[in-house]
Amino acid sequence: MVLPPAATRPLQQSLVLVAFPSAAGGNGPTPVPLFISADAEQVGLPASPPDWLQLSLPHAIAPGLCRVGCTASDNPRHARRSRLAFTVQGRAWEVEFTQQPGLLLQTEQIRVLNTPLTVDMAVLVTWVASLINDIEVPPIQVLVTVLAVLALVAIGLIVALQRHLFVNVPEPRPLSTDSVGQPVVVFPGVNLHGELPLKDIAAEDQTIALQTVKAIYWLLRQVH
User: Fold this and answer.
1) Does the residue 5 lie in any domain?
2) Single residue among 66, 101, 136 that ends a domain in this structure
3) What span, in angstroms and rounded, lies between the C-alpha atoms of 40 and 67?
4) Distance separating alpha carbons of residues 187 and 17, to the nearest angstrom
5) Count of the separate structural domains present in the chain
6) At which of 101, 133, 152 does a domain end?
7) What's residue 167's pLDDT?
8) Which of 58, 62, 124, 186 has the least C-beta neighbours within 10 A?
9) Are 130 and 199 members of one domain?
């Protein structure tokens, strides 16, 4: 008995999507094309795709060839997977969609924001606090403390400005504000859940600002 030839798949078996489509910039993420060897009217979309995946209507490219645009939302967590059945000329064909995980990137971002005060700044703050404590006149001590706080703010602004002066240094913004369940510790006793990172400010600027706040906190803690 002669067996009939196996049907050729009219579309690919799997499709991989990046973790952060919005990072491409522009007016929004560019849909990833899923090419199907059939006319657009011969293609039926899956009945219930997952909420993180949007599928456009089939768009004809040429006779016997069409395209479906696949757009995923940003994924700051583990990898996402979904198997969806497309109907092509009356027959169902499954495609496995996989979106890459963004968890490692988000975890590293929160780790950087939670970086303790750098050693050189901690030494500077301790030295300035010891000088202030040696002042025996309270009004003068308060005045010097205020000047020291302003000086720390100025140092933070200068460091941030220097980064912006280097044209070739990238200033990426956070790809997601998801803190993956970890709080950002500004200083002991003040933990922010969901307020940081900010989406519209460069990640490096937020790190510099947090380091400045921590320096001011430890200065005031040591002044007595």
Assistant:
1) no
2) 101
3) 8
4) 38
5) 2
6) 101
7) 55
8) 62
9) yes
Contact 214/187 with Cβ under 8 angstroms?
yes
Asked whether residue 86 falls in the same domain as residue 124, the answer is: no
DSSP letters of 90-130? Answer: TEEEEEEEEE---HHHHHHHHHHHTPPPPHHHHHHHHHHHH
pLDDT of residue 164: 76
Residue environment code for 81-107, b if the CB has 16+ CB neighbours within 10 A, otherwise e: eeebebebeeeebebebebeebbeebe
Q: What is the pLDDT of residue 101?
A: 93
Say if CB 72 and CB 51 are below 8 A apart: no
Residue for token digits 């220097």? 162
Low-confidence spans in the chain with pLDDT less than 70: 1-7, 25-26, 167-171
Domain enclosing residue 177, as ranges: 104-222
User: How far is Cα 56 from Cα 45, in angstroms, rounded to an integer?
Assistant: 9
Distance of alpha carbon 119 from alpha carbon 108, whole angstroms: 20
Whether residues 112 and 208 share a domain: the answer is yes
Same domain, yes or no: 74 and 117: no
Residue whose structure tokens are 């140092």: 155
Q: What is the pTM of this model?
A: 0.73
- Which tokens in the block code for residue 141? 């001590």
Quick: pLDDT tens for 57-74: 999 999 999 999 999 999
